[in-house]
Design a protein that fits this description.
alpha+beta; single chain; two-stranded antiparallel sheet; 6 helices
Length: about 150
């Protein structure tokens, strides 16, 4: 046993939609599905462009602070490209913030489809979330003993 699980995940693909007239010069980038980032990446501090200011300088944003994450996600949905979206956006955290985000139309409408599809997707049965291999399964006594040894 190498201590790793191997998982298949659907590939995310992006579509570029024409920019709204008079709003901006580059297309709106929208994924076909949401994805998850690893926990440390979801909550790191990043140096990120404001994207709305004239000087377009970079600022520090702490993604563990809800207000900072909200600000960054609003900018990503409105102005983000595929690379920035994949690097900074977490699907579950986006859905958690969705009703609070100030994202103008038509960007909000384009993303609404992806958010709704994720919210309405059927969840896997509970028995599929647990470990199935007996070699890595620990009893509650083993878990407590392991914690005491640590």
């Amino acid at each position: 046993m190498a201590g790793w699980n191997l998982a298949l995940q659907p590939r995310v693909s992006f579509t570029e939609h024409p920019a709204p007239a008079g709003f901006r010069c580059h297309p709106v980038t929208v994924p076909d599905r949401l994805w998850r980032l690893e926990a440390p990446a979801c909550f790191r501090t990043i140096k990120f462009f404001d994207l709305l200011r004239e000087d377009n300088d970079k600022y520090w944003w702490d993604l563990s602070v809800r207000a900072d994450r909200k600000f960054v996600y609003e900018r990503l949905l409105t102005h983000g490209d595929e690379a920035h979206l994949m690097l900074y956006l977490d699907g579950a955290l986006l859905i958690d913030l969705w009703d609070e985000l100030d994202v103008p139309e038509p960007m909000r409408g384009l993303w609404q489809f992806v958010v709704d599809a994720t919210r309405q997707a059927p969840a896997r049965p509970e028995h599929e979330y647990g470990r199935r291999d007996e070699e890595t399964r620990r009893s509650s006594v083993q878990v407590v003993k392991h914690a005491d040894d640590g």
